[in-house]
Write a structure and sequence with these properties.
Blueprint (H helix, E strand, L loop, with lengths): L8 E2 L2 H4 L4 E9 L6 H5 L16 E8 L5 H4 E7 L15 E7 L2 E9 L2 E10 L1 E3 L3 H19 L1
Parallel strand pairs: 4-7
Antiparallel strand pairs: 1-6, 2-3, 2-5, 3-4, 5-8, 6-7
């Protein structure tokens, strides 16, 4: 039994991005290519629709804080939703905000060119979750330090 090309694996956000993600910029519609002739004829811009779910596609540029190679650290996430997803966090620097994704899937792909190919993934999500991971981790670590101090 083989896995078909284009299969999307459901994955937990913390497993895919253990150090988190930072969104750079805003979420924008993922529009189909429009030729010069289409623009000259004032044809409307069409937003892409996912062929599997039938939902509209939105895109955002993110940076993986756990990626060591600079060329692979930033990439686009595709959101599948009827309405534009809105991040649940505020900006930490102008245009940058930590995010956590819900409904995350990964689709394996081959990246690179020529003899410099590598395995990469296309990530899709259904929306944003409120980022409480940093608060939760610090609370967990302080609770763990309390437990060790009680044991001593």
């Amino acid at each position: 039994m083989a896995i078909e090309r284009g299969f999307r694996f459901g994955i937990n956000f913390d497993e895919a991005f253990p150090r988190g993600l930072v969104m750079v910029g805003d979420v924008a519609p993922d529009n189909e290519f429009q030729s010069r002739e289409d623009r000259a004829a004032n044809r409307p811009v069409r937003q892409r629709v996912d062929e599997v779910t039938g939902k509209r596609q939105w895109k955002a540029t993110v940076t993986d804080l756990g990626e060591e190679k600079a060329k692979r650290a930033s990439f686009e996430i595709t959101f599948l939703a009827d309405v534009q997803p809105v991040p649940a966090t505020s900006e930490v620097l102008p245009g940058m905000r930590p995010i956590e994704l819900e409904g995350l899937t990964a689709e394996p792909r081959v990246g690179g060119q020529g003899e410099f190919k590598y395995q990469t993934y296309v990530f899709r999500a259904t929306g944003f979750k409120a980022v409480a991971a940093s608060a939760g981790k610090s609370a967990r670590s302080s609770a763990a330090s309390d437990d060790t101090s009680k044991a001593a």
